[in-house]
């Protein structure tokens, strides 16, 4: 079956200027993929007639479906509608059904329907009217020269309503669509290139209709398997079979699937085991505790978090010895050990976690440069310490430290070997 392709175009100077974040294309791409449409390109253009005309011409050559968002407001800077009329060489007129809707919209809110707002009901003559039940700017559907064009408001909740109510059902009835199935393996603690080397033979042997993509982020790599065919059940079985083949190669690093975050997995393991947790943070400043407590139900296992930023706080709250700080400093293996053990003993938890380091951008020395971090996990059986040598900026170092400690706790909870 021939793939059905789409291009998504956002229109608006505010997007190019960085004044708003474009979330529309991500959402539309995911919804299109779910029904079997493959997005081949995403573009953004400003409120410029020539730029819009140019990108429409290019998109028409690349895709079966061209979806535009933005530029449908009633003011002079919103030129999408008039530019579409020029592109299709057509005029526009008041659409009776759209006029009734916009009139009622304002009447229900006790507002006057001005001449400017009345223009919201004016549509290109070749457009199919798509009622927008969440705003005044209607959507428009065009079928020209074998390509579907869709124009939608840029306001996210209005766009999503039109896509769900009007556009996606029309696409499904217009095109014979293949099935696209995605499955994500989430890994942590291994770099993209090392991961690729481990699974190279498996990747090379994948069937032609199953594609693998590497999606790296800070401290993690997601492996996305995308299968295309005609039966969802068949594709799911095939992808699961491929996962069963690759897992023995990378099982130590796989912490979850699809939407799992590392903190979600750790939370589930703590609930299932009945263990409890307390945390002492210095360089992470409470960020690790935030990751833990943002999970609903975390009070079942999380007892306390201490931000012991100063040496005095480390001594007074965690019973870190003054001699330890004087002889080794706050960023050291002896100090982090005492922090983890101290927070565990103070709050009577199964595990005590601790962080201390130089997150940057300053504060480093020749012996302890920026990015030098110590983490520790104290349990009834042992205390595990680990030195991290990171190279990111302050926020990256804080985030990477928290992920490393969560992964250490995950390994202990499931009985995996430690590095």
UniProtKB/TrEMBL annotation:
Domain of life: Bacteria
SUPFAM superfamilies to which the protein is assigned, alphabetical: CinA-like (SSF142433), Molybdenum cofactor biosynthesis proteins (SSF53218)
Residue span(s) of domain MoaB/Mog: 7-173
Family stated for the protein in its record: Belongs to the CinA family.
PANTHER family for this protein: NICOTINAMIDE-NUCLEOTIDE AMIDOHYDROLASE PNCC (PTHR13939), NMN AMIDOHYDROLASE-LIKE PROTEIN YFAY (PTHR13939:SF0)
Protein name: CinA-like protein
Organism in which the protein naturally occurs: Siphonobacter curvatus
């Amino acid at each position: 079956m021939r793939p059905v392709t789409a291009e998504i175009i956002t229109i608006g100077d505010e997007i190019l200027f960085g004044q708003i974040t474009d979330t529309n294309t991500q959402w539309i791409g995911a919804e299109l993929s779910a029904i079997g449409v493959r997005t081949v390109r995403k573009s953004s253009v400003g409120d410029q007639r020539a730029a819009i005309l140019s990108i429409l011409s290019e998109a028409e050559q690349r895709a079966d479906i061209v979806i535009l968002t933005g530029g449908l407001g009633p003011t002079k800077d919103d030129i999408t509608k008039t530019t579409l009329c020029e592109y299709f060489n057509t005029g526009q007129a008041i659409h009776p059904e759209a006029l009734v809707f916009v009139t009622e919209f304002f009447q229900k809110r006790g507002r006057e329907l001005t001449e400017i707002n009345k223009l919201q009901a004016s549509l290109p003559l070749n457009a199919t009217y798509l009622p927008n039940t969440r705003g005044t700017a209607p959507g428009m559907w065009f079928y020209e020269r074998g390509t579907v064009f869709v124009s939608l408001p840029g306001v996210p909740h209005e766009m999503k309503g039109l896509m769900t109510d009007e556009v996606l059902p029309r696409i499904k009835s217009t095109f014979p669509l293949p099935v696209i199935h995605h499955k994500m393996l989430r890994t942590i603690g291994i770099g993209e290139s090392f991961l690729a080397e481990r699974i190279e033979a498996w990747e090379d042997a994948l069937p032609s209709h199953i594609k693998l993509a590497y999606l790296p982020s800070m401290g993690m790599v997601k492996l996305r398997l995308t299968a295309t065919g005609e039966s969802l059940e068949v594709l799911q079985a095939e992808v699961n079979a491929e996962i069963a083949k690759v897992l023995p190669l990378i099982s130590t690093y796989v912490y979850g699937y699809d939407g799992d975050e590392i903190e979600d997995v750790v939370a589930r393991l703590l609930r299932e085991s009945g263990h409890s947790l307390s945390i002492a943070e210095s360089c992470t400043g409470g960020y690790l505790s935030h990751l833990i407590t943002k999970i609903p139900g975390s009070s079942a296992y999380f007892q306390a978090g201490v931000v012991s930023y100063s040496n005095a706080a480390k001594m007074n709250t965690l019973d870190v010895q003054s001699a330890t700080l004087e002889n080794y400093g706050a960023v050291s293996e002896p100090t982090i050990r005492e922090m983890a053990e101290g927070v565990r003993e103070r709050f009577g938890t199964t595990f005590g976690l601790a962080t201390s380091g130089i997150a940057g951008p300053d504060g480093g020395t020749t012996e302890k440069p920026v990015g030098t971090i110590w983490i520790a996990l104290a349990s009834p059986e042992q205390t595990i310490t680990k030195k991290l040598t990171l190279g990111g900026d302050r926020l990256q170092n804080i985030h990477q430290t928290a992920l490393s400690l969560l992964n250490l706790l995950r390994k202990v909870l499931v009985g995996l070997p430690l590095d």
